[in-house]
């Protein structure tokens, strides 16, 4: 009788569900396949490795070695340009930047360089509304504009807004018709001569030129060294976040280094000060993991993440809606994609990688990410491996997050700031955040572990691999991927590989 009662209880609940929650089933019936999939619980895909990783033991000596800072590699920051303001400005240069925070950051650096090439006055760049995150944050919402202008005052002229005579030159103006003052044909990685031949005449004729689109519109090669150094100066000196982002970032770093015990909370504006005694000699070390596993990344990769037909259909539909068949990866099988290192690492996989490198469950992690595809269900495996894992939400109060809530660029700015101040930075997959952080930390000679994506893809395809073999392969495959200087090659980004353009041999 007891068994019958227990067995019948779920059935009774199912019958009562429409009465108890009348809107629930109706909302599911109208939900998209991708939304329905995200309600499901993601299961671990590498159960054998996970079980061994959870039982791992790491010696204190190995842990100490992992945290050792990078040795001096004989390179120093070298970004000082030769200040020289033109006697007369050729006109005002406007640029319209799209993409996320780090793509905008690169675009700002390029805009300063182009303004210098043209002897133009740069208008503070306009940020397009991000179509994915719907973030309307402006330059001044993210970056300290007065610091930006002050650092570059001897290099180029910069204005926050156009004078009244050019107030008509707006984003809306250029959206309604073809305009003589808009340049929309700037090629990817255009040369300095292209700007002199195609943009300078517009400036001289009209006193203003607006370039849209602008992202990635300046070459990394065959530019005068003073222009390269100016780009470096913008990236590493002129671009700093607004004070409230820096203050929140400092607070999060402090809480990671000195976990509070018996903390008294004192409200000071929107930041929460903790009143407790800390021992400066016992500052904790921490790793920042940039978990680039949002729906866009998962869909665009065209990889299989173990969710079966429901997940495949949901991601395929999303991919078709957003990119309309322009995703080349979808032509390959999952095995081909993984073997080539084209699949982003899931939270479970980046956790196994970090564990194989030797980090134990006492390691403090900070998770830098916006919105993880699959939510907490996806993250839970990583949290099992590293229970001392924090993020913005766990470290900061809701009051402290008020000024960044719902603003993808500001959320990313906080993660960038914390990442730049961490002992070790690891990105789960290549991308703009990975590239920007790799370059910035190389410039500061800080340890940054670059996952060997092709190796990891092949290892995870091997379902019979043992934990010792997996760990040995990971260690050997990441021996020289910890932040060692890699000189920039032709066509590579100056913002990812700052040597030798932004750095000099000591």
UniProtKB/TrEMBL annotation:
<protein>
    <submittedName>
        <fullName>Uncharacterized protein</fullName>
    </submittedName>
</protein>
